[in-house]
Write a structure and sequence with these properties.
This protein has about 350 residues and is α+β, with helices and mostly antiparallel strands. The protein folds into 2 domains: about 1-70, Alpha-Beta Plaits (2-Layer Sandwich); about 80-330, no CATH class. It contains 12 helices and 4 strands, in the order E-H-E-E-H-E-H-H-H-H-H-H-H-H-H-H. It has helices spanning about 15-25, 55-65, 85-105, 120-130, 135-150, 155-180, 185-210, 225-230, 240-250, 255-265, 270-295, 305-330, and strands spanning about 1-10, 30-35, 40-45, 70. The chain has a 4-stranded antiparallel sheet with strand order 2-3-1-4, with helices on one face. Strand 2 and strand 3 form a beta hairpin. Helix 7 (about 185-210) packs antiparallel against helix 10 (about 255-265). The chain is globular and about 65 Å long. The termini are far apart.
């Protein structure tokens, strides 16, 4: 047994920790893998057959490359790609102006009332489905598809997965909302929750920009032991495993999911909490469906940097709007927009 420490390029959040550890521990000659997000490295113990560290890093990179990660002996210099903002800013502005006009016309309720509307939740779901923190879910979908295609060439496993995921998000979101009803949430508490939700979204948006390393360690996440147990469901080979995997995604480490769960808790209602998480799950569905039924991958796109920066700017705008409208709804500041 030997232990080596490698630097990991492509790390974004706690989902990356879970994904790299899970993929590496599935390698037959590796007994343990422990990833450190803060240092962006992984400590690996195993029987490497006398291979030198450079060869080991190359071999394991081939395994992790499909998820956008690479191992190296020396830490790679991070390239910020500030020039991508030249395209990202106009696209994000056009998107936000379009929704502001729709809001002003009364066609959508995007930022009113100090709470995210279902339209906002749906858009957050769309953004989350291609973000780094949903990498674990995408990896689960790909792994499940490969495993079950050996014995079942139909689309049944994928359909079961997405059905289980969407239905469970409604019921589990409802349970969270019902749990919130057991607490007395005052108007001041609602304000605090709204501000916390805005701050969480702000951190997630900043992380999507991929220019501030400090945002990686601030993102919320499920306790690691819960996420690992949820990920462990994918090891089962029962007929109903795809449904269980769909249910398990509710507990995986995604900051966007956790922020919507926080809002569901604040609703104090089974129906509202359930519909919030259902809308979020439906928002993630289009991209996850593409991953299930095709070789779609944002990580492999040459324009992925522009896409993530655009998404990050939109999420940041939503975060600021949410904080401002929470303060407006509580009467602390005057309305800033005629919405």
């Amino acid at each position: 047994m030997q232990t080596y420490t490698f630097h990991v390029a492509g790390m974004h959040c706690n989902a990356c920790v879970l994904m790299t550890e899970s993929e590496l521990q599935d390698v037959s000659y590796i007994s343990q893998a422990k990833t450190n997000l803060k240092k962006e490295c992984v400590e690996i113990t195993g029987e490497f057959g006398g291979k030198d560290p450079e060869t080991i890093a190359t071999d394991l990179t081939l395994i992790l490359a499909k998820h956008g990660y690479a191992l190296s002996i020396e830490k790679q210099k991070s390239v910020k790609h500030w020039n991508e903002f030249k395209n990202a800013i106009p696209i994000a502005l056009a998107f936000l102006i379009a929704f502001a006009l729709l809001q002003n016309a009364g066609l959508v309720n995007l930022i009113g009332g100090g709470k995210p509307s279902y339209i906002t939740v749906f858009i957050i779901g769309l953004v989350a489905s291609v973000s780094s923190c949903m990498a674990v879910v995408g990896g689960l979908v790909l792994s499940m598809s490969a495993t079950f295609s050996k014995n079942d060439a139909s689309m049944k496993p994928q359909i079961m997965f997405h059905t289980g995921r969407i239905v469970s998000f409604f019921f589990l979101g409802g349970i969270i909302g019902l749990l919130g009803s057991t607490f007395h949430i005052s108007s001041f508490s609602s304000l605090i929750i709204g501000i916390i939700l805005g701050i969480v979204m702000l951190i997630l948006g900043l992380n999507l920009l991929d220019v501030f390393n400090w945002t990686k360690k601030l993102q919320p996440s499920m306790p690691k032991f819960v996420s690992k147990r949820a990920l462990g469901v994918s090891k089962f080979t029962h007929t109903f495993t795809p449904i269980l995997i769909g249910v398990a995604t509710f507990f995986l480490p995604c900051g966007f999911t956790q922020s919507m769960q926080l809002y569901a808790l604040s609703t104090g209602s089974f129906i509202t909490g359930g519909l919030t998480m259902l809308t979020f799950a439906i928002g993630t569905f289009p991209v996850l469906a593409l991953i299930s039924f095709s070789s779609f991958s944002v990580e492999k796109s040459k324009n992925k940097g522009v896409f993530f920066k655009t998404a990050g700017l939109i999420v940041i705008a939503f975060a600021v709007f949410n904080i401002l409208t929470s303060l407006i709804a509580a009467g602390y500041i005057a309305p800033l927009f005629n919405f």
